[in-house]
Design a protein that fits this description.
With 610 residues, the protein is an alpha/beta fold. 59% of the residues lie in helices and 8% in strands. The longest helix has 50 residues.
């Protein structure tokens, strides 16, 4: 790549005069890498939102975040293998605090390059030492360490962790095992401050072709060591262990114990272990020529054991190892949302049952079919009421055959009993959901925050839901009136098929009285319930039921009730259910993974591509 003195608009980003090509990793991001980045970002967001609360959950998220960072870096390395097929060997020196990693680097390179200190946590930046490699050909590392600024080793700031160093190791004639390689001295991964710079260690470990694990007798058994080595296992990297600061007499027992730890953590055979004695000064390691020669021989074998091939297989193994734990919190969130949807479904179903009980199946409250009979009476030509009916029809734009001609709407007669039953069902739904929310919040200690937040949204939405339901109820009542009219016309058409019955009805005093009541109902003189319980109406209903129209009337009544039940269910679903099931989508996104189930399902089918 060409070096340029300045960066014009649209030019690649530059770091320390080295051109950085952002497209090297991001122009064609493989789908699995994109999904892992999404998982990583959502884990980090949810973890940050927890603050100091819910430490068990925070611990799980931190654990997942480490393996996600590692997997992301390893998949990115997969993009290097085809684009940089002859990149120098990457040798990562890893280990816990005060194991002597920097001293081992200097010992291997036979140069005092890495800074050493008796203080714990002295090295907080990755530092690469290139042997037999032109630094000008390593600008791709700035892409790999895209969140880090490359600096000279002397310019590293201990207060900033977003830096790394890369310099040439001036070795005139390096031994074969050291040639064309970059040795990475890394920070520890187990100290109190390690959370601040562990991401850099993970990125170096993912870049590595060979791992040198440096341990001391005080640290070799630490849980953090074996958690880290367990993380690396799916990669199958050639590994060497340097057991540092060891008294010769203690070595056999320590080495055997270390191998036992390895076998307990990993399934591959324990790697070669080289003991280094405890020395007062790290410079004294330079005198260990025999040990260095042995270690370089082991390193040479490790170099030949590593391969750039099969990266996709190793990536798949790494992802398969951690996939279930990565998606577990996402699936838990999906389960909560599904449970909430189930609670809403149950509450709506229960409220509809309450409406059915309080209105549709109630012997004294249900009046819809009687309203259809009132419509039927206005269609009859009753002697002595002709003029009144004509006036009533003109006043209320009756009947429907006239409406069809004029294109006018028929005003619905409100049924106060049904409206009361609907409002009662609404309040029942609120009570049912409120009780369920309180119960789940108390039962599920691990998800109390989720239930508390959804409960708060539910309480805040109640006034809006009531207003929305009232408007929807008015639309339902108006919209259902044509069904009542159609039922009346169906009854009238059936009566016309029985002329004797029709003429008999027109001649009876009961029909005359009932028709007068229907006129009063339509002109607002009486209410629906007064109309239903009027003796003349009760007598007319009994007369029709016992007539030839009885069987058809029962069928029409049942069909009208079925349609009304369906219309009310639609009312509840459109005005309440639809809004309630969307409540989880309004939760604070910082507290949610917010990854749709279909996206998660699609991710499980993805291939690993370099």
């Amino acid at each position: 790549m060409q070096r340029t003195p300045s960066s014009p608009p649209g030019a690649p980003r530059r770091r320390n005069a080295i051109v950085y090509n952002p497209g090297l990793f991001d122009s064609t991001t493989p789908a699995m890498l994109a999904f892992i980045r999404l998982l990583k970002q959502r884990h980090a967001s949810v973890l940050a939102a927890l603050g100091g609360a819910d430490e068990p959950r925070a611990r799980t998220l931190r654990h997942n975040l480490r393996s996600l960072l590692f997997a992301e870096a390893f998949l990115e390395k997969g993009g290097l293998n085809p684009t940089q097929p002859r990149h120098p060997l990457q040798i990562a020196i890893l280990g816990p605090t005060q194991a002597g990693k920097s001293s081992v680097v200097n010992w291997l390179l036979d140069r005092p390059l890495a800074g050493v200190s008796p203080l714990a946590g002295f090295t907080v930046h990755p530092q690469g030492f290139a042997v037999g490699v032109d630094l000008a050909k390593l600008d791709w590392l700035d892409g790999y360490f895209r969140d880090y600024e490359r600096r000279d080793r002397g310019g590293l700031d201990a207060r900033r962790y977003d830096c790394y160093a890369l310099e040439a190791a001036d070795i005139a004639e390096p031994p074969g095992p050291l040639r064309q390689a970059i040795f990475w001295d890394t920070p520890d991964f187990d100290s109190v401050d390690a959370d601040e710079y562990r991401q850099a260690v993970l990125r170096v470990a993912a870049l590595a072709d060979v791992v040198i694990l440096v341990l001391s007798k005080d640290k070799y058994a630490d849980l953090a060591v074996w958690e880290f080595m367990g993380l690396l296992e799916p990669l199958g990297l050639p590994t060497l262990i340097c057991l540092n600061k060891i008294e010769p007499a203690a070595y056999p027992a320590l080495a055997e114990s270390l191998r036992g730890k390895w076998r307990a953590t990993r399934r591959d055979p324990p790697p070669p272990i080289l003991p280094l004695p405890y020395l007062e000064a790290s410079d004294d390691l330079a005198g260990l020529r025999k040990e260095r020669a042995e270690f370089l021989a082991d390193l040479d074998q490790a170099r030949h054991a590593q391969t750039l091939g099969h990266h996709a297989d190793r990536a798949r193994k790494l992802i398969d190892t951690h996939w279930r734990e990565w998606i577990a919190p996402v699936e838990a969130e999906h389960a909560l949302e599904a449970e909430w949807r189930g609670m809403v479904e149950d509450a709506v179903a229960d409220s509809l049952k309450r409406y059915q009980q309080d209105y549709l199946d109630h012997p004294h409250h249900y009046a819809t079919f009687q309203r259809a009979l009132a419509e039927l009476l206005t269609l009859l030509e009753i002697p002595g009421l002709g003029g009144i009916l004509v006036a009533a029809r003109q006043a209320v734009t009756w009947p429907l055959r006239q409406l069809a001609k004029l294109g006018r709407k028929h005003p619905a007669t409100p049924d106060g009993t049904e409206i009361a039953a609907l409002n009662h069902a609404l309040q029942h739904l609120f009570i049912r959901l409120g009780e369920s929310l309180l119960l789940r919040r108390d039962e599920d200690a691990t998800q109390q925050a989720w239930w508390r937040e959804i409960g708060g949204l539910f309480r805040d939405d109640k006034p809006i839901l009531v207003q929305h339901f009232e408007k929807a109820t008015a639309h339902y009542l108006q919209g259902f009136q044509p069904e009542i009219d159609r039922t009346a016309h169906g009854l009238y058409d059936h009566l016309r098929e029985h002329p004797a019955l029709l003429n008999g009805l027109r001649a009876t005093r009961v029909t005359t009285d009932a028709t007068a009541l229907a006129v009063a109902l339509h002109t607002g003189g009486i209410g629906v319930q007064d109309f239903v319980i009027a003796p003349a109406m009760l007598s007319l209903t009994s007369l029709l039921t016992e007539s030839a129209l009885g069987k058809y009337m029962d069928k029409a009544a049942a069909e009208l009730k079925r349609k009304q039940r369906a219309a009310v269910e639609k009312l509840f679903r459109d005005s309440l259910h639809a809004r309630l099931i969307r409540l989880p989508g309004r939760l604070d996104r910082n507290h949610r993974f917010d990854i749709p189930p279909e996206l998660l399902q699609a991710a499980t089918q993805l291939d690993i591509r370099p």
